[in-house]
Write a structure and sequence with these properties.
The complex is a heterodimer.
Chain A (H helix, E strand, L loop, with lengths): L2 H5 L1 H21 L3 H7 L8 H9 L18 H13 L6 H13 L4 H13 L4 E4 L15 E5 L2 E12 L6 E8 L2 E8 L5 E7 L5 E12 L4 E4 L1 H39 L1 E2 L2 E2 L4 H29 L4 H30 L10 H13 L4 H11 L7
Parallel strand pairs in A: 1-4
Antiparallel strand pairs in A: 2-3, 3-7, 4-5, 5-8, 6-7, 9-10
Helix pairs in contact in A: 2-5, 5-8, 6-7, 6-8, 8-9, 8-10, 8-11, 9-10, 10-11, 10-12
Chain B lengths: L8 H15 L13 H14 L17 H13 L8 H13 L2 H13 L4 E4 L15 E5 L2 E12 L6 E7 L10 E7 L5 E7 L5 E14 L3 E2 L5 H6 L2 H8 L3 H16 L6 H29 L9 H22 L9 E3 L2 E3 L2 H7 L9 H12 L5
Parallel strand pairs in B: 1-4
Antiparallel strand pairs in B: 2-3, 3-7, 4-5, 5-8, 6-7, 9-10
Helix pairs in contact in B: 1-3, 4-5, 7-10, 8-9, 8-10, 9-10, 10-11, 10-12
The chains are: A alpha+beta, B alpha+beta.
């Protein structure tokens, strides 16, 4: 799917310019912070009409090959969209559904299921979520306790999944579990017998889903992937989603830094704009350097990931970019509050929304320290794995 | 004359590598201080003989005329082998300045002599009361017949005691405001009235000097550019210098040394150490990405812009942190002076630390770079 961006340079550049334009247009016209505030903490969390609009723009199919109705583009293109939407704190779960869950299905080995579900996902009528994680602080998609025992030609699943992003309105869950012959991913429709969903509220007004499986049944036709293909599909999905989360963090930090700089230029104290004080100037410069580092790593990492490197190199790239973007976004959004003073600490002002989004995006799919540990292991620096 | 730019990157890299490995003195690899002229003149002669002493100069002037891409390879290969920096201000500064601002006579006289190493240049910018605030410099050059009479003092003049000539900024108009009354002059260091006194730095090396000017007569034809426009002349080269100084290669060497030692001492089993080490390693990898962006701009012939200052800040501060962690990793052994064998690795803890210290001071301190970014890039008010 990434070949498109690698082999056709000019169409790639064109796609990118068009994408950036349509994202900017969407953020300016189809959404605003009032909508974000309205939806935060609500049971819906996001707006299906907006999701359909995003589908209409082709964004849900960016990572889906053309033969399944997608655009067959790469992470570079997806990052333009996700990063641009993150600037406006757009609450629709593009990454959770359009990257994480979509990649798991695309990389799976169930051709019939792909032909059935991918066009629906691209059209926005089926909204998927990937339930891979069971405990906090792991990046290992193979750390699975959920069991899937053979049952009447299919499987019967038991166990629990946590931290499922984009679960609130998900229509189907892609769930990883261990079968007697290794890991597999199962397609479980929302509300199926034995599939229970609970939501844990998050700092940013969204939620993580907890999925409890009690003898949930999955016929053989609902096996998304099994064996080595399943393990690789999960690892690929996590790395790609971590890279796109990095692009989202970059969008969040960029907007927050703009807010801070604007404030420094206009807020007057001691009869001077506070941005004329050297102490604040130097802090602003340090934040700018973090943002530029994040942006440079992101650009390099996306381009490298779109060349489809081997799994270890891919994981190292994802860790590198997620580590920098998580820490940079946290630092910039925290400092945005500080640079604004008391007004920054009010709920009415938007600075807090950016900080909270950064908190969640940084923690999701592994924070800075977790990714540095994985990077160290991949680089052979320490012996931890 | 070879057109190096027409060569493939790989072929050029191979040829450079082979030459450097064959000709550069092994005992001068990775020395953690500025090399002196006596040590470097043999290597200078080798480079000069091959026509490789001035990669940045046009071929018509005896340089290699490298484009930005080949220039990066040139610097990479030098640094990869640990080639020390020669007293090269004539090549990096004086040559390009003369080509842009010099008279025909100045070019004809100085360019070939600068290439051959007959003229070795030092930079007379800073003064005791004009450091970061360089434009407040007070060294005066007063026209008197066909000479300027120069009085004043320069300081932090790197390797002045190895140089034959100095290029300096001097005030030629006391009434004009700051930057406007400054001129750019060339002076022979043998001129009567010039006294050079080396200053010992905290590493124990005499790398920089004070240069005193007491009624020094500098011929008027040694004025470069127009009278009172020396500031423009001096500023012309700053952004490329910041790109070069912001290269990740020097800190990468520090990182390799640190990793070698950490491995030998078993520090990689200490999660606390590994956390800090890997954070610095990533700081450096991310610097390489940022550096790559600026190199890309240079290769496309785009102006570098004021934001290149961020490279210098990040490269130098990361480098310093690496040398700090090296000392800390050494614990008690880290403060023993000189080279020691630690767990089978020849290690000098203190020299890298000292060597990195002034990096956030010279070439525009980190604070000055932050001022520049705040003003020109972030557009913050003054």
């Amino acid at each position: 799917m990434a070949a498109a961006s690698g082999t056709h340079t000019n169409p790639g550049v064109e796609h990118r310019a068009l994408l950036a334009e349509s994202v900017a247009h969407f953020v300016a016209r189809a959404t605003d912070i009032a909508r974000v505030r309205r939806l935060r903490g609500s049971p819906a969390e996001h707006d299906r009409a907006a999701w359909t609009k995003m589908a209409g723009l082709g964004w849900l199919g960016i990572l889906v090959p053309e033969r399944y109705g997608g655009l067959g583009l790469g992470l570079t293109e997806m990052a333009i969209v996700a990063g641009g939407l993150a600037r406006g704190l757009v609450p629709e779960p593009l990454n959770a559904a359009g990257v994480l869950a979509t990649t798991a299905l695309v990389a799976g080995d169930n051709e019939a299921l792909k032909r059935e579900q991918l066009p629906r996902m691209v059209a926005g009528t089926v909204l998927p979520a990937l339930a891979w994680q069971e405990r906090a602080a792991t990046l290992d998609a193979g750390a699975i306790a959920c069991r899937a025992g053979p049952f009447e030609g299919g499987f019967r699943l038991n166990g629990a999944k946590r931290f499922v992003a984009g679960a609130a309105q998900a229509d189907a869950f892609l769930v990883s579990a261990n079968t007697p012959s290794g890991v597999a991913i199962f397609w479980l429709p929302r509300g199926a017998a034995g599939v229970e969903l609970a939501l844990e509220p998050l700092a940013d007004g969204r939620s993580f889903g907890t999925l409890t499986l009690r003898d949930a049944l999955a016929p053989a036709a609902q096996v998304v992937a099994s064996g080595a293909a399943a393990a690789e599909a999960l690892a690929l999905a996590l790395d790609r989603a971590a890279a796109i989360a990095s692009a989202e963090l970059h969008g969040v930090m960029s907007r927050a830094l703009e807010m801070s700089l604007e404030y420094l230029r206009t807020r007057v104290q001691f009869a001077r704009p506070i941005g004329s004080f050297q102490a604040l100037q130097h802090r602003a410069v340090d934040l700018h350097i973090q943002k530029e580092l994040a942006s440079a790593v992101l650009e390099d990492a996306l381009a490298a990931l779109d060349r489809e490197p081997a799994p270890a190199a891919r994981a190292a790239l994802a860790s590198r970019v997620k580590s920098r973007c998580s820490d940079a976004a946290l630092r910039i959004t925290r400092e945005t509050i500080q640079l604004h003073g008391a007004i920054g600490f009010t709920d009415e002002y938007d600075a807090g929304l950016y900080l909270k989004r950064a908190l969640v995006l940084a923690a999701w799919l592994g924070g800075g320290a977790a990714h540095r540990r994985r990077y160290a292991a991949l680089e052979g620096v320490n012996r931890e794995s | 004359m070879t057109d190096w730019n027409a060569m493939s990157d790989e072929a050029f890299r191979r040829e450079m590598r082979a030459f450097i490995e064959a000709e550069y003195p092994r005992e001068l690899r990775y020395i953690l201080r500025r090399a002196r002229w006596d040590e470097m003149k043999g290597w200078w002669g080798k480079l000069y003989g091959k026509g490789w002493i001035a990669p940045n100069w046009p071929r018509a002037e005896g340089g290699m005329g490298l484009d930005a891409g080949k220039m990066v390879i040139y610097l990479e290969e030098m640094e990869r082998y640990g080639v020390a920096r020669s007293p090269d201000q004539g090549i990096t500064q004086v040559g390009p300045i003369l080509m842009q601002f010099g008279t025909e006579a100045q070019k004809r006289h100085y360019l070939p002599r600068t290439l051959s190493g007959e003229c070795i240049w030092c930079q007379g910018y800073s003064e005791p009361n004009a450091g970061s605030d360089l434009a407040s410099l007070q060294t005066a050059a007063v026209p008197e017949g066909d000479h300027f009479v120069v009085n004043g003092q320069k300081i932090w003049t790197t390797l002045a005691h190895d140089a034959t000539h100095i290029y300096l900024l001097a005030r030629t108009d006391r009434q004009a405001k700051k930057q406007q009354g400054i001129s750019f002059l060339l002076a022979d260091l043998k001129t009567p009235g010039i006294t050079i006194r080396p200053i010992r730095n905290i590493a124990g090396h005499e790398e920089f000097c004070e240069v005193f000017f007491d009624r020094v007569r500098v011929p008027r034809e040694n004025l470069v550019g127009k009278l009172n426009e020396g500031w423009t002349v001096a500023k012309a080269l700053l952004s490329f210098e910041r790109l070069n100084i912001g290269s990740p290669r020097r800190p990468q060497y520090a990182l390799r040394r640190l990793e070698m030692l950490a491995r030998a001492k078993g520090l990689l089993d200490d999660p606390g150490f590994v956390d800090r080490f890997i954070a610095l390693k990533l700081d450096l990898e991310d610097l390489a990405s940022l550096y790559g962006r600026f190199v890309g701009r240079a290769k496309r012939g785009e102006p570098l812009g004021e934001d290149v200052s961020m490279l210098k800040i990040w490269a130098m501060e990361t480098w310093q942190q690496l040398t700090e962690l090296l000392i800390e990793a050494g614990a008690e052994e880290g403060v023993i002076a000189g080279v020691r064998e630690i767990a089978g690795v020849e290690t000098d803890f203190l020299s890298p630390f000292y060597y990195a210290r002034p990096a956030t001071i010279y070439g525009g301190s980190s604070e000055i770079q932050r001022n520049i970014l705040a003003k020109y890039v972030l557009k913050l008010p003054s």
